[in-house]
């Protein structure tokens, strides 16, 4: 009974030493990617509020550093390699999406 209880209780494992993640973020301090518009340009159609105004583009230095990290696939890959739990979760989600698509496809063929 104890084994069955252990299987049902979600396990959470954390790695508190994040040296590899810190090293990856230090390398990205300088933005490799530059924004597609100049600072001060009004970004039409990007308004998300009902009565708000369109946002104005900022200079590249005014944006947070993590924004440039999101755009770089090499850094994202390094972060996944540094955290095996997140990598496993991402892989599990991809497999679930594929499985759902297959099931939906097969269900459509039966109808």
Describe, in plain words, how this protein is organized in 3D.
The structure is a single chain. The protein is mainly alpha-helical and 111 residues long. It has one domain. Helix content is 54%, strand content 0%. The chain contains five helices and no strands. It is flat. The mean pLDDT is 82.
Topology:
Layout lengths: L1 H7 L10 H9 L37 H7 L1 H10 L1 H27 L1
Helix pairs in contact: 2-4
Organism: Wickerhamiella sorbophila
Protein name: Large ribosomal subunit protein mL54
GO molecular function: structural constituent of ribosome
Tally of separate helices: 5
Q: Tell me the distance between the termini.
A: 43 Å
Strand content: under 5%
Gyration radius from CA atoms, angstroms: 22 Å
Number of structural domains: 1
H and E order: HHHHH
Helicity, in percent? 40-55%
Described by strand count, sense and barrel closure, the largest sheet is: none
Multimeric organization: single chain
Mean pLDDT: 82
List unreliable stretches of 5+ residues. none
Key traits:
111 residues, mainly alpha, 5 helices, 54% helix, ribosomal protein, Large ribosomal subunit protein mL54, transit peptide
Please provide a brief summary of the model.
By secondary structure, this protein is mostly helical. The chain has helices spanning 2-8, 19-27, 65-71, 73-82, 84-110.
């Amino acid at each position: 009974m104890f084994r069955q209880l252990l299987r049902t209780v979600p396990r959470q494992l954390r790695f508190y030493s994040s040296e590899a993640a810190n090293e990856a973020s230090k390398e990205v301090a300088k933005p490799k990617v530059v924004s597609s518009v100049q600072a001060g340009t009004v970004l039409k159609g990007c308004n998300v509020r009902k009565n708000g105004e369109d946002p104005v583009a900022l200079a590249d230095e005014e944006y947070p550093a993590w924004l440039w990290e999101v755009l770089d696939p090499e850094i994202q890959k390094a972060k996944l390699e540094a955290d095996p739990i997140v990598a496993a979760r991402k892989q599990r989600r991809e497999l679930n999406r594929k499985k759902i698509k297959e099931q939906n496809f097969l269900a459509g063929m039966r109808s």
